[in-house]
Amino acid sequence: MEVLGHYDLGELAEFERNERGFVNTSFAIQTLAGGVMTKRFFRKYKVGVKEEELLFEHSVVERLVAHGSPPVARIARTRDGKSFVMRTEGDDRVFYAIFDYLPGDDRYTWVAPRCTRSELVSAAQVLAQFHSAVSNLKPAGQRAEARIADLLPLLSLYVEECLSRSKGAAFDTYLCKHQALIQEGITRMLGVLNEPEVGKLPQLVVHCDYHPGNLKFEGEQVSGLFDFDWSKIDTRCFDVGLALWYFTAAWEGERDGELRIDELETFLEAYQKAQSSLPGIGPLGETELKYLPDMIAAGNLYVLNWTIQDYYHKEVDPQEYLVFLRHGVNFIKKYRK
């Protein structure tokens, strides 16, 4: 790992590929300096990420570290004080960063998580801490991805072209079969997002990928929050809705896509209670609560967008992505208005 030559972290002693991620390439590494072994997290960002996106992400992380909560990993600085290393590899600019290694267990992924009640409460409290810490942050750089209201028309165009993009797999067949249903969901959601009240909802830095797979646990308490590379400025209520979709949508059998309402209420109550005692943005207001069910549905469409884009842009397992696609479609079917 030649990238280590840009740091004063010692010599590379061990490394192990982290197989959990879908977007970036990551390793757990051990560095040896002065006879002391230190575990760190090494990330190679996906090709195509822009420098201003890293500046955005890293300014969010640095705010959280300075704030002291929620628990996040510090970014290691290079010898020249930067938070990342850029290298030219072929025709591409590729970025790397090194973080502290967070304590705790990687207990879940985003697929079919089933947190205990105590884990749900702790996760909700950490999301509240995150929103509180970034409530007045003006981040450096800029996230390239559009806000949810501007992203959905792009998803609509992509779904419309599914036949021309087909790989001839079961995923493609299922997508084309349910094309009209997905378009119906997008059209309804765009109508909601374009309502004047929605435009006035509180905006701030959102995590935009807040799920159990991006948390570490010690016992039943969250010990670390990570993966801020999807963070951007958007509606706070959307971030909460997306989290509720991730944490409480069932994946089992006939219940696939159905929200577990008791767990949803546990998470939301814990979030609201935590926010009531934190400085900054405060609990969800009356209008945010009014639109929260719609924001949960918007979160489902957001993940559907990732599923479809990832499938057609990468070499992936069609059967694995069919599970993701079916999950999103089942949600639309169950909560169709």
How far apart are the first and last residues' alpha carbons, in Å?
53 Å
CATH superfamily of the largest domain: Aminoglycoside phosphotransferase (APH), C-terminal lobe
Q: Major sheet: size, sense and barrel closure?
A: 5 strands, antiparallel
CATH topology of the largest domain: Aminoglycoside 3'-phosphotransferase, Chain: A, domain 2
Number of helices: 11
Instruction: Quickly give the structural class.
Output: alpha+beta
CATH architecture of the largest domain: Alpha-Beta Complex
Arithmetic mean of pLDDT: 95
Radius of gyration: 20 Å
Strand order of the largest sheet: 1-2-3-5-4
Number of strands: 9
Write the H/E string, N to C: EEEHEEHHHHHHEEEEHHHH
Counting copies of identical and different chains, the oligomeric state is single chain
CATH class of the largest domain: Alpha Beta
What share of the residues does DSSP label as strand, in percent? 15-25%
Shape: globular
Low-confidence stretches: none
Tell me the number of structural domains: 2
Helix content: 40-55%
Description:
The protein has 337 residues and is α+β, with helices and mostly antiparallel strands. The protein has two domains: 2-100, Phosphorylase Kinase, domain 1 (2-Layer Sandwich); 117-334, Aminoglycoside 3'-phosphotransferase, Chain: A, domain 2 (Alpha-Beta Complex). Helix content is 45%, strand content 17%. The protein is built from eleven helices and nine strands. The strands form three sheets. The protein has a five-stranded antiparallel sheet with strand order 1-2-3-5-4, with no helix packed on it. α6 (179-193) runs antiparallel to α10 and α8 (236-248) packs antiparallel against α9. The chain is globular, with a radius of gyration of 20 Å.
